[in-house]
UniProtKB/TrEMBL annotation:
Family: Belongs to the 5-formyltetrahydrofolate cyclo-ligase family.
Record has Ribosomal protein as a keyword: no
Annotated binding of ATP, by residue: K5, K6, E7, L8, R9, R134, I135, G136, Y137, G138, K139, G140, F141, Y142
Protein name, entry field: 5-formyltetrahydrofolate cyclo-ligase
Coiled-coil stretches: none
Superkingdom of source: Bacteria
Catalytic activity, EC: 6.3.3.2
Catalytically driven reaction(s): (6S)-5-formyl-5,6,7,8-tetrahydrofolate + ATP = (6R)-5,10-methenyltetrahydrofolate + ADP + phosphate
GO biological process: folic acid-containing compound biosynthetic process; tetrahydrofolate interconversion
Organism whose genome encodes this protein: Flavobacterium defluvii
NCBIfam families linked: MTHFS_bact
Keywords in alphabetical order: ATP-binding, Ligase, Magnesium, Metal-binding, Nucleotide-binding
A molecular function GO annotation: 5-formyltetrahydrofolate cyclo-ligase activity
Length: 190
């Protein structure tokens, strides 16, 4: 199998599209349960993506419950499609969530959180390799965001699928993951 970003993106989008709601729920729960084993629970600010249900992304509801049960500060984002930048907000009981034109659930309002406060980022992706390189949708939102994070910010990919051997067309500017968690396994890249 070729391993260009474009081909891997299409391949894994199609694989994921075949998943039923039950499969997504089971795999998402397995990922959340594995996260408990990571050495990340001494931090305060955790950034979590809210899934695009129509794209059959990982359901992060289980992770949100885990974080609130541990009394962590949960950060969610709003995307600006002109600048490809994300702004970050604290998720509270009063946060109103609304889907944007791309079906991404986003906060309507809230308390802004500076990117330098964020200590752990759960990163959505379509595929990743054994070196910690990831493939998203190709819009660069997470690359821009992760580039602004402090070097010690922990980046954790979440994937329904196991790693590929190598992604061929990786750029030097691509930010590598520290971990990737799948329903079966935890990959460590540090």
């Amino acid at each position: 199998m070729t391993t260009s970003k474009k081909e891997l993106r299409l391949y894994y989008k199609n694989l994921r599209a075949a998943f039923s709601e039950n499969v997504i729920e089971e795999k998402s729960l397995a990922i959340a349960n594995s996260l408990i084993q990571l050495p990340i629970w001494d931090k305060t600010y955790y950034h979590v993506f809210l899934p695009i249900v129509e794209q059959k992304e990982i359901d992060t509801e289980f992770i949100l419950h885990l974080l609130s049960g541990k009394d962590k500060e949960i950060v969610i984002s709003k995307s600006d499609f002109e600048t490809r930048e994300m702004t970050h907000f604290l998720l509270t009981d009063n946060t109103k969530i609304k889907k944007n034109e791309y079906n991404i659930p986003e906060p309507v309002n809230g308390l802004p959180v500076p990117v330098e406060n964020i200590e752990v980022v759960f990163v959505p992706l379509l595929a990743f390799d054994v070196f910690g390189n990831r493939i998203g949708y190709g819009k660069g939102f997470y690359d821009n965001f992760l580039a602004k994070c402090k070097p010690e910010t922990i980046k954790i990919g979440l994937s329904f699928f196991e790693s590929v051997k190598q992604i061929d067309d990786v750029f030097e500017s691509d930010i590598k993951l520290d971990y990737c968690v799948t329903p079966e396994k935890i990959y460590t890249f540090k």
